[in-house]
Write a structure and sequence with these properties.
There is one protein chain. Helix content is 78%, strand content 0%. With 264 residues, it is mostly helical. Helix 4 runs antiparallel to helix 5.
Length: 264
């Protein structure tokens, strides 16, 4: 907290150094509104540029083309997120922000492998490079959230994570029984690894969202709200993608694509 005489020094205009300290302290709590506006503008420019490129190339027709252009937009927005995460990690004194950078690096890598055809969704008996990237995203973000809970005693962290896991397990069971299984058909047609991933990806996303939701019950902040929304939207996209072994189909892409893009 800034002492009252620090405020007086800044107010008099003779505390240039103190003002810099105030700005740095504020940055550690929440990025400036100007930065948020710049990020939004960059993301809108990226989407507008890709939309213009799609129109100039003759438009988009068919599920395959929609999927390719959607992948390009998703990768572009993730790249913006990676740059921002690395930038904040370099500015922050706390090393936990490098976990966020690692998470974005992992998902960017996974998306690149999908775009270039080095990996395919639910089409292998083993983990693909894309799966490695996605699991890196989830693992690094969960590690970041665990470190973020460092203000709690060890027993408190364990209780918090256990409650989040129970909420996620209940939600995944409902999703599996009501959405994924009826749409997927016979799970035996999939490899064992694919059967696990169809459930694991939504489960991890819901687990992350539950961790942040429980934090919101204690103290609210815009960053936590948007983070929870991001995890929920990612889980929605993973659920939709897991509802068909032939992804992308028109129905699954219509849900998964906008959910993943909105999560960025």
């Amino acid at each position: 907290m800034i002492r009252s005489h620090d405020h007086k020094r800044v107010a008099r205009g003779g505390g240039g150094v103190a003002l810099s300290e105030v700005q740095r302290a504020n940055w550690r709590v929440v990025p400036s509104a100007a930065l948020v506006r710049r990020v939004v503008v960059v993301q809108l420019v990226v989407i507008a540029a890709l939309a213009a490129a799609a129109l100039l190339s003759g438009g988009i027709s068919g599920v395959g083309e929609w999927d390719r252009w959607g992948d390009a937009a998703y990768l572009s927005l993730l790249a913006v997120g990676l740059v921002l995460a690395v930038g904040r990690a370099r500015r922050e004194e706390q090393r936990r922000w490098w976990l966020v950078a690692l998470a974005f690096a992992g998902i960017v890598f996974g998306q690149v492998t999908l775009i270039f055809g080095w990996a395919q969704w639910l089409d292998t008996s083993f983990l693909t490079l894309a799966d490695v990237g996605m699991l890196t995203w989830h693992g690094a973000f969960i590690a970041f959230l665990v470190v973020h809970l460092g203000h709690l005693p060890r027993w408190g962290r364990l209780v918090h994570l256990t409650e989040a896991a129970m909420l996620a397990a209940a939600a995944v069971f409902l999703v599996w029984e009501s959405l994924i299984l009826p749409s997927l058909g016979d799970p035996g047609e999939l490899s064992v690894s694919s059967q696990v991933l169809v459930v694991l990806y939504p489960a991890l996303g819901l687990f992350e969202a539950a961790i942040v939701a429980l934090l919101l019950m204690v103290a609210r902040s815009p960053g936590r709200v948007f983070l929870m929304i991001t995890f929920l939207l990612n889980a929605v996209g993973d659920i939709a993608a897991g509802m068909s072994t032939d992804y992308p189909t028109a129905a699954t892409l219509a849900v998964a694509g906008p959910a993943w893009l909105a999560a960025c």
